Amino acid sequence: MNDELQLINAAKAGSADAFADLVKLYRVRLLRFLLTRCSSFADAEDVLQDTMIAAYRYLHSYDPRWRFSTWLYRIAIRNAQKVRSENVVEFSDLSDAESDPLLHCIAQSETENLWVSARRVLNDDVFAATWLRYAEDMSISDISKALDRSDSWTKVNLLRARKTLDTEMNRKSTGSKAYG
After folding, report:
1. What is the structure's pLDDT at 93?
2. Residues 123 and 70 in one domain
3. Using CA atoms, how far apart are residues 169 and 171, in angstroms rounded to an integer?
4. Nearest Cα to 130, choosing from 109, 148, 156, 106?
5. Do 111 and 81 have their domain in common?
6. For position 57, what pLDDT does the model report?
7. Do 168 and 133 contact (CB within 8 A), yes or no?
8. What is the CA radius of gyration of the chain?
9. N- to C-terminal Cα separation, the chain
10. Do 23 and 74 belong to one domain?
11. Contact yes or no for 112/42 (Cβ under 8 A)
12. For the purposes of burial, counting CB atoms within 10 Å of the CB of 171, is it exposed (0-12), middle (13-18) or buried (19 or more)?
């Protein structure tokens, strides 16, 4: 974290190299997250680029009392919402598994299949909260700030998501076709 703060301060002072190092720190994580929010890999890459440009442009407004990752994810979420509303391609509308952008960032195993199921059964904000908590290991407070929600909303919806996913995975393991 201290190295990150040094990079942020250097980037604020005008160091392009320091900002490039910050981009390297967050690029893969943000892209993986954006793949869950965008309808295509290309859209996720575009949103990532827009996010990094906005971060560079508004770096002076970053407040070090908060985690830098939270600030970046908030920018990314806003940019992804703009692209999503322009494209209006719902995840459930993707008929071919090969066109699923989420599959670009995960392997085919039981654990990763949980994320595919989560994407299908959870709404966007609840999925984002779940991803940020369990894939990115963000705190409840940071998730709440990134999603512009209360801590209570975040806690309740993470609990509901776990219950929904438990039901979904149990349904899959028993071969039941009815949703519970």
Report:
1. 42
2. no
3. 5
4. 156
5. no
6. 94
7. no
8. 17
9. 43
10. yes
11. no
12. middle
Residues 57 and 132 in one domain: no
Give burial (CB, 10 Å; 0-12/13-18/19+) of 62.
Answer: middle
Let me know whether 119 and 159 are in one domain: yes
Please state, in angstroms and rounded to a whole number, the distance separating the CA atoms of residues 48 and 50: 5
The Cα 109–Cα 88 span in angstroms is: 29
pTM for this entry: 0.70
Rounded Cα distance, 118 and 124, in Å: 10
State whether 66 and 144 are in the same domain: no
pLDDT mean by block of 10 residues, the chain; 180 residues: 87 94 93 88 93 94 90 93 60 43 49 74 91 91 92 96 89 60
Looking at the structure, tell me whether residues 82 and 4 fall in a common domain.
Answer: yes
Q: What pLDDT sits at residue 175? A: 63
CA angle 63, 64, 66 (to 5 degrees): 85
CATH of the domain at 75: 1.10.1740.10
Whether residue 18 contacts residue 7, with contact meaning beta carbons closer than 8 Å, is answered with yes
Range of 131's domain? 106-175
Closest Cα to residue 46, out of 54, 15, 147?
54
User: Which pLDDT belongs to residue 40?
Assistant: 86
pLDDT of residue 126: 93
